[in-house]
Amino acid sequence: MTPPDSPPPFSLRSIAVPAFGPALLFSVGQGAILPVVALSARELGASVAVAALIVTLMGLGSWFFNLPASVITLKFGERWSIVAAAAAGALALLAAGLSLVIDDGLWLLAAAMAVVGMSASVFSLARQKYLTEAVPLEFRARALSTLGGVSRIGVFIGPFVGAAVMQFAGISGAYWVGVAGMAAAAVLAVTVRDLVAHAGTSGPAGPAPTLRGVAVSHAGVFLTAGAGILLLSALRASRQVVIPLWADHLGLDASQASLVYGLSGAIDMLVFYPAGKVMDRRGRLWVAVPSTLIMGTALMLIPMTAGFLGLLLVALLIGFGNGISSGLVMTLGADFSPDRGRGQFLGLWRFIADAGSTGGPVLLSAVTAVASLGAGVTATGVLGFVAAGVFAVVLPKLKHRRNY
User: Fold this and answer.
1) Helices in 253-371 by DSSP H: which ranges?
2) Which residues of the chain have pLDDT under 50?
3) Distance between CA atoms of 105 and 181, rounded to whole angstroms?
4) Dist. CA 40–CA 51, nearest whole Å
5) What is the pTM of this model?
6) Residue 47 contacts by C-beta under 8 Å, 6 or more apart in sequence?
7) Residue 352's pLDDT is what?
8) Secondary structure percentages of the chain, helix, strand, coil, to 5
9) For a Cys-Cys bond, which of 90, 114, 125, 207 suits 182, CB 3.0-4.6 Å?
């Protein structure tokens, strides 16, 4: 029986709305626009290459803004950083929607996509730091896996909401859904109460840590566990490209390719919480190694598929492997981050992860260009085995806050 003066036991359900509500709404806004950005650029007169570049600006904006995002979060605090990032994202999507009805709107669309990526960087880092400090260690993986899972659910739902609105408002309707989702995220983050940081998260007083100081003092972690995170992120990003490309290689039509991709994403969304529970109770290694091995194996099986059913089964396996890794990058970042300098550490950690997300599709493209698509897919699958090896070797040896 809990003594009368003791705080109630922690429950993720008790913080569900402030912790995960803004992330869900922000992700719905992101998901709504993802299918239409390239189409919008083409409608504004862009070539296929330029349209692809404009889509890429979201990822590049997020990648390069990770380090400034850590400074912003430290200066203004997690809550107001979340509010400002969501508001900036909403304004950027408003500008993107207006770019379709003005002269020379292509430049405005490109700038808007870069700002959306920068906003996502600030939002994600602030949300991760917020939960890291508010949730007790024994619930950390479940909290961060749920955050990752909720974001995936939002991105999954967003295109359907956008498609419904586009029936009445045309292609710009997707941007109005994005504006509404991100604006709602900002409003929700303003109105809910701050999460109370878990005891023991504040470090000793002293000079404020710098990005360079944190990078130097934690170089061992960044060069070892960080290498595994880079490989995992490359693997994740590549699988999003591989499935539609191989579907096209097999001659599947657009509806079949979309069905394969969608079902893979559905499996992805179903397993994030059990995976977080395993990480909390058995250790991070129990998810880090199996998830990378499963994705690596599945990707290497793709060139052996010859039709819809084979590709679907392998895509479901990829979805399962990716789903159980939900929140892994954030959880390991939280585990290794210091009490003082956490914001700078997480900014550097996310920079490494986003570098992998950018590099994975580049590797696929390079190997495909010099060999074949099958060789490119196989090379990408090898990354999973290398990542599993890195995690298996370095996680048990590094000094961290819990046993792996």
Assistant:
1) 254-270, 272-282, 285-301, 308-324, 328-336, 342-370
2) 1-2, 198-203, 401-404
3) 23
4) 8
5) 0.86
6) none
7) 95
8) 80, 0, 20
9) 90
Interatomic CA distance for residues 377 and 241, integer angstroms: 10
**End-to-end alpha carbon distance in the chain:** 31
Q: Which residues contact 45 (CB under 8 A, 6 or more apart)?
A: 106
CA distances from 78 to 128, 166, 194, 343 (A): 9, 34, 9, 10
Q: Which of 85, 92, 94, 97 is nearest to 186 (CA)?
A: 85
The alpha carbon of residue 66 and the mean position of all alpha carbons in its chain are separated, in whole angstroms, by 13
Q: What is the largest CA-CA distance in the chain?
A: 69
CA 299 to CA 182: how far, in whole Å?
Answer: 34
d(C-alpha 52, C-alpha 29), whole Å: 20
52 vs 44, 113, 351, 402, CA distance in Å?
13, 12, 22, 42
Q: Give the relative orientation of helices 140-169 and 105-134 as an angle to the nearest 10 degrees.
A: 150
Encoded tokens for 285? 């290694």
pLDDT, tens only, 100-140: 988 889 999 999 999 999 999 999 999 898 888 888 888 89
| Residues belonging to the chain | 404
d(CA 214, CA 224): 15
Task: Give the CA angle between residues 34, 36, 39 to the nearest 5°.
Answer: 135
pLDDT in tens, 14-40: 778 888 999 999 999 999 998 888 888
Residue 239 backbone dihedrals phi, psi, to 5 degrees: -65, -25
Name all domains of the chain by residue range, CATH numbers in brackets.
Answer: 20-191 (1.20.1250.20), 211-394 (1.20.1250.20)
Q: Specify the pLDDT at position 62.
A: 92
Contacts for 149 with CB less than 8 Å, ≥ 6 apart = 269, 272, 273, 323, 326, 327
Q: So what's the pLDDT on residue 199?
A: 45
What's the gap between Cα 240 and its chain centre?
12
The candidate with the shortest Cα–Cα distance to 349, out of 362, 334, 360, is: 334
Whole-number Å distance between alpha carbons of 348 and 329? 12
Q: Tell me which DSSP letter residue 195 carries.
A: P
Is residue 111 within 8 Å of residue 62, measured between CB atoms? no
Token pair 């029986």 is found at: 1
